[in-house]
From TrEMBL:
<dbReference type="GO" id="GO:0009450">
    <property type="term" value="P:gamma-aminobutyric acid catabolic process"/>
</dbReference>
<dbReference type="GO" id="GO:0004777">
    <property type="term" value="F:succinate-semialdehyde dehydrogenase (NAD+) activity"/>
</dbReference>
<keyword id="KW-0560">Oxidoreductase</keyword>
<feature type="domain" description="Aldehyde dehydrogenase">
    <location>
        <begin position="30"/>
        <end position="487"/>
    </location>
</feature>
<keyword id="KW-0521">NADP</keyword>
<dbReference type="Pfam" id="PF00171">
    <property type="entry name" value="Aldedh"/>
</dbReference>
<feature type="active site">
    <location>
        <position position="260"/>
    </location>
</feature>
<dbReference type="InterPro" id="IPR016161">
    <property type="entry name" value="Ald_DH/histidinol_DH"/>
</dbReference>
<dbReference type="InterPro" id="IPR016163">
    <property type="entry name" value="Ald_DH_C"/>
</dbReference>
<dbReference type="InterPro" id="IPR016162">
    <property type="entry name" value="Ald_DH_N"/>
</dbReference>
<dbReference type="InterPro" id="IPR015590">
    <property type="entry name" value="Aldehyde_DH_dom"/>
</dbReference>
<dbReference type="InterPro" id="IPR050740">
    <property type="entry name" value="Aldehyde_DH_Superfamily"/>
</dbReference>
<protein>
    <submittedName>
        <fullName>Succinate-semialdehyde dehydrogenase (NADP(+))</fullName>
    </submittedName>
</protein>
<comment type="similarity">
    <text>Belongs to the aldehyde dehydrogenase family.</text>
</comment>
<dbReference type="InterPro" id="IPR029510">
    <property type="entry name" value="Ald_DH_CS_GLU"/>
</dbReference>
Amino acid sequence: MSTESDDRPAAVRDRVDGLADAVTLAADAEAFVPVEEPFTGETVGEVPACTARDVDVAVERARVAQERWAGRSIEERADVIRDYHDRVLDERAALLDLVQLETGKARRHAHEELLDVAANCRHYANRAVEYLAPERRAGALPLVTRTETRRHPVGVVGLISPWNYPLNLAVSDAIPALLAGNAVVFKPDEHTPYAVLRAVELLTEAGLPADLCQVVTGHGDAVGSALIDRVDYVGFTGSTATGRRVAARAGRNLVDCSLELGGKNPALVLPGADIDAAAEGLVHGCLANAGQLCLSIERIYVHEAVYEPFLDAFVDAVSAVDLGAGYGWDVELGSLISAAHLEAVESHVADARDRGATVHTGGSPRPDVAPYAFEPTVLTGVTDDMAVGCEETFGPVVSVHAVDSVDEAVARANDSDYGLNASVWAGSEERGIDVAERIECGTVNVDDPYAAAYGSLDAPMGGMKDSGIGRRHGAEGIHKYTEAQTVAAQRVPLTPPDRVPYRLYAGVLTRTMRLLKRLDGWR
Ligand SMILES: NC(=O)c1ccc[n+]([C@@H]2O[C@H](COP(=O)([O-])OP(=O)(O)OC[C@H]3O[C@@H](n4cnc5c(N)ncnc54)[C@H](O)[C@@H]3O)[C@@H](O)[C@H]2O)c1
């Protein structure tokens, strides 16, 4: 087990040494991509900018390894994932250091993603046999046709992942793919390659066959596109704009894909809600990972009956959040990922301020804390035509709006191109669920911002509208990595023997149809 030393910054930087050796290359790398530590803005390493030829080699190696892996039983595959689960927890401190080093997030937010990885390992290792079992289906004719659906691995899965949860959003999607008998080629974001590289080392130490998981690093348009052209399934997590390009490319190759994209997630605070609980819950919902979370709440619609007390409690709670840059557990909110992202978040707030919005707390960068740190920010007076009113900010910035009725809250929440996640606070579970059913989002949480639905690993998670296609988690999250094959065994011939006149046979069939329809009522 690794320890959490006081001399962490130096030790953390040492952890990236040698990790890039695991990148799949056809020959010596000719170009490299630098990796920055957002806490300091300093370059801490570099990884190869892979070429299309490197991607060829990675996919070919994975394809060879996959054939043997598919021959192992699901239980044997699950044992490897269980071992990996233990290694992730044993190596907790070092993995947290690595995630923090390349993302600049607070340790508590890095810890959330590590727990998500472990939970996904346990869930799918325990449930894969059941999820992948042959399924009995109704046959062409009752009793005389025995029909089953079987699940075959698709082959090589390409996983293109973003920087905001570099470990979880790569590894947790890989676990079901591997359990279903596939190989995986990872394409991590260029800002955050190291967590995935260490994850693959750990999977191999846990017993995953060599070559079954490959990593190709480099820029998205070059490496990502090459990967889409070679794999049998694409799992993409990232922005809606890139998702459209990924889907178009996968479509050209007739390769299936899932797209986990952006959100502009609403929360509804309605009469009867426990105001302190809602304010506290939504502080976490808006600021987790410095707001760089696809599920994070960026718009809060509050019924006028509770608007004033909610706004007061919420602004107080947000103002009390400590911004910091360090590897200790005490930091509540970390840095943004990069200079470019800081500029994007800053421009949303500046646009809102210039056009009349009120900043209740925050609103400024904090270079004294870290080069890309930005204060947690609460706005009111935001209109739908402001950038912060309609585009995903993906930072610690939230707007609060008063509404006259529950119907208006629902209508405003649904008035968005996105449909990823929502949160409802209504004072009673039943009222909350009634409202939830009216919200156009793939996940809706009652009395919680996002973790209740996201953590329900047996239930599908994903986006409606521009927030995506397909789902992760549950049966849906493993079936997508399989080809469904229908096997039907016919016990009595469906075609008539030659000696029976077809006219007679047609009459029997027609009578059978009538009989079956009458029997339907007995089901
Ligand atoms: N729905 C979800 O589960 C979920 C989870 C996390 C993040 N997100 C979304 O991700 C976005 C933030 O991530 P980002 O800014 O890194 O996204 P991004 O779309 O810029 O990049 C995501 C990944 O795609 C790669 N890429 C870039 N161009 C590509 C191309 N042409 N072809 C193939 N791959 C390409 C990148 O290198 C990176 O690995 C936000 O919009 C956020 O909401 C969604």
